[in-house]
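debug: dumping io for the single-chain case to check the tokenizer round-trip. Nothing else runs in this session.
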Amino acid sequence: MSRLAVGPLQSNPTDVALDPLQSDPVDVALEPLYWLLEAWYWLLSQLYYATGLELIHPEYAFMHRAILVGLCIGVMAPLIGTFLVHRQLALIGDALAHTAFAGVAVGLFVNATLSFSVSPYLTAIVVAVIAALLIELISEYTDAYNDVSMAIVLSTGFALGTVLISLNAGGLTVSIDQYLFGNLSTVSAENAVLLLVLFAVVVGTVALTRNQLLYVTFDEVAAEVAGIPVRWYNRVMVMLTALVVVGAMQIMGVILVAAMLVVPVAGASQVARSFSQALLTSVVLAELAVVVGIGVAYYAEATAGGVVVLVAVAIYVGCVGLGKLFAGSHREESAPDVDAIDSDGTPLE
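debug: decoded output
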């Protein structure tokens, strides 16, 4: 039996129903969504009875949650990453991951000093969204390049996190390693449900604003002339990035979270012939990396975040080779097929 299966986090699939919900407003708001988690437990339990895979044993509820979180990240990260890579903002994920670490530190500090029970991931969401807006505002009001504003926010966020952790070192009851490197076994039921909310927000927002985001991504000037509020859509994009970063941090960790925004997209760009193909291909590659990575990490007793990234990089290398192999006869050296849209985002026939 794998070492990951040993420990207090082993639990029965019905644990969610048995867990006493906290009385704070966040738990009350999330309570109706727990049935989704219970349905997921039931589904993987049935899959276990059909396949006998130890990885999804009904007693390993923490693995069920980790797989759910991984699959959601496999959709969210490349969905946003495809826009970021084409905007040449690949490193913004790294900057926001470091500010999310500051958010975790804020949550731990508040809990330790004021005896609250706020989830550090919830404070990480708030701080990361604020940091994302700061990146855009610094660029807008100082005319600085985006990489300058990202560097400022990244440094500030990590500095704030380290200061708060050091001030609170004696009062911490949890290890910060799980936030730095990620951990399959630390995905709680509350955090899994929180991620489902983030998943709905990110996917729903992109679905509703896809054409506008696409227009702004490839030609900001033309989009502004067409009447699209470019600045607002830029802010929406960075805020969505912040939500993805915090969600992925649970199993990827701060240090590796940016990889899922970039590596699958880079691999997809080697074999796809249009923006839409690149987006769909990147989601498939990311899901493959997550499933294989979590499986290898479980049986090899390795850190999940690192294994997932290594698998993603291996897939990228394969895509580069495949792209070069078919480049001559099957791949057009042209810009992505940007759909024509008018000022209110309606596709033109």
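debug: round-trip ok. Confidence is low (pLDDT under 50) at residues 1-22.
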